[in-house]
Amino acid sequence: MLYIDQPTQVGFSYDELINGTASLGPDGETFLVEPGDFSEVIPESNLTHHVGTFSSQKLTQTPNTTAQAAHAFWHFAQTWFTEFPHYKPSDDRISLWAESYGGHYGPAFFHFLQQQNDKIANGSSTEKDAHYLHLDTLGIVDGLLDMVIQHESFISFPYNNTYGIQAINQSTYEELMHNWTRPGGCKAKVQACGAGLRDGGLGAVPGARPRVVRHRAPEAGPVPGAAHAHGYLRRGGVLSALGVPVNHSMASAATAAAFAGTFDFVRGGYLGAIAALLDGDGGVRVHLVYGDRDYASNWAGGEAASLAVPWRRAAEFAAASYAPLLTPREPPPNHGGGYGEEGGEGGGGCEYSGLTRQVGNFSFTRVFQAGHEVPSYAPGAAHAIFARAASGRDIATGLVPVTDGLVTSGVRDAWTVRNAPPERPRPRCYILKPESCLPEV
Q1: Domain CATH number, residue 355
Q2: DSSP bridge partners of 354
Q3: 328 exposure class (CB count in 10 Å sphere: 0-12, 13-18, 19+)
Q4: Which of 37, 69, 136, 164 maximizes the CB count within 10 A of its CB?
């Protein structure tokens, strides 16, 4: 398993080293880095103002589109397997899992690798001694695959969802939908020129956090727990063991600005890339996974995107029903509401964790009671899905080998399975992540 910081200036990756300060931005979440000269005195650090070593923050020295990042990723893979052959396992299959914006990254990266493989195979590659990369499985968790298709659910989901929570009223919903669908409206502009989209509306609801159903700012639930990585990755011993000379950047404002400048987030073609992977000679498996409490990339939009993938078995996929996702029973999570409780349990030490539609190598799964980071909310279900995908078995049960004849059966319409909203969890303040804390803290 290989974890890659991508693009440059994110995580521990860097181009040029600079000393500087990172101050909490106006959104209360992003840290903005400013170069500084500390030759005479080092500024004081506090919770919202850090001193450290960072990347250059130059927009010209980080990719600004998914296509550029895919190209860089391929060259990295070629260098890795050439210069470090001892890291190349006997099983050379490569699987890629991506989340959120990974709905762009995952399909684009794997499709680019597929295209390079084709050139290597037919002798048209201009890259000397390029390695053929055996692509096996692409997994996408809560991914933004197609802005045109999924954006409509940003409007409809807070008005109508399987938790019975109406975050916007009918008049607001109708106004937003009108602005989206009218001639010359948002949808037309996205389709015509890739311009930026306006907020889907939930952000205007007082106190609402437009990511997770039943959460309000400050964040509550499992995300602050995952955020303890902030502190761990800042420890001197960890930095020394990893051999890195820079502070860890969870998100790079420079990289985000570079991508925003090209309107990369509204670029299409990723559904077509998935179709090419499914229909190609390599037999790549593609699995889409969405938490049904996620708003940022909600399952309704994910389902619509899955049905819009133009592969050769699209009609058969749309006609298939949903099978129960049965996963090993685990203790209920402590963030309010365990998955499976609204739908009952399967036998044999399993529980009902979601719904899966699968035809051959392609699946779409809705995971109950999971937010934008499915593994944080439903670790058992997420691990089961990952393990089944890696072993080439059906996602719903893990008992059936994946073949062309695999077609799920069960619930025809996933919307008929409703959920009881969990109790709203109390915020858990993690002092190194100030946005998780109440204002008085």
Answers
A1: 3.40.50.1820
A2: 325, 367
A3: middle
A4: 69
- Rounded CA separation 108/26 (Å): 32
What does the pLDDT look like over 338-351, one tens digit per residue? 333 333 344 458 89
Question: Confidence class of residue 387 from pLDDT cuts 50, 70 and 90?
Answer: very high
344: nearest Cα among 424, 408, 419, 292: 419
Structure tokens that stand for 204 in this block: 């205007």
The answer to whether residue 125 is domain-embedded is yes
Q: Strands, E, within 293-409: which ranges?
A: 323-328, 350-359, 362-367
* 90 and 39 in a common domain: no
DSSP tag of 216: B
Annotated active-site positions, please? 100, 294, 372
Q: What is the number of other CB atoms lying within 10 angstroms of the CB of residue 146?
A: 23
Structure-token pair, residue 366: 């809705």
24 residue type, one letter: L
**pLDDT, the chain, mean:** 83
Which residues span the domain enclosing 158?
A: 148-216
Q: For residue 379, is the peptide bond before it cis, meaning its omega torsion is within 30 degrees of 0? A: no
Query: Do 156 and 208 lie in a common domain?
Result: yes
- Residue 358 clears pLDDT 50, i.e. is over it: yes
- Picking from 261, 156, 265, the residue whose alpha carbon sits closest to that of residue 200 is 156
Helix axes 186-193, 147-156, angle to 10 degrees: 160
pLDDT reported for residue 212? 54
**Mean pLDDT value of segment 310-318:** 98
Mean pLDDT of 53-73: 86
Asked whether residue 58 is assigned to any structural domain, the reply reads yes
71 and 128 within one domain: yes
Model confidence pLDDT, tens digit, residues 103-141: 999 999 999 999 999 999 999 998 888 989 999 999 999
Residues in the chain: 441
- Assigned domain for 2 exists: no
Contacts of 244 (CB under 8 A, 6+ apart): 12
The alpha carbons of the chain give a radius of gyration, in whole angstroms, of: 22
Residues 192, 133 within the same domain: no
Asked if pLDDT for residue 392 goes beyond 80, the answer is: yes
**Domain-embedded: residue 295:** yes
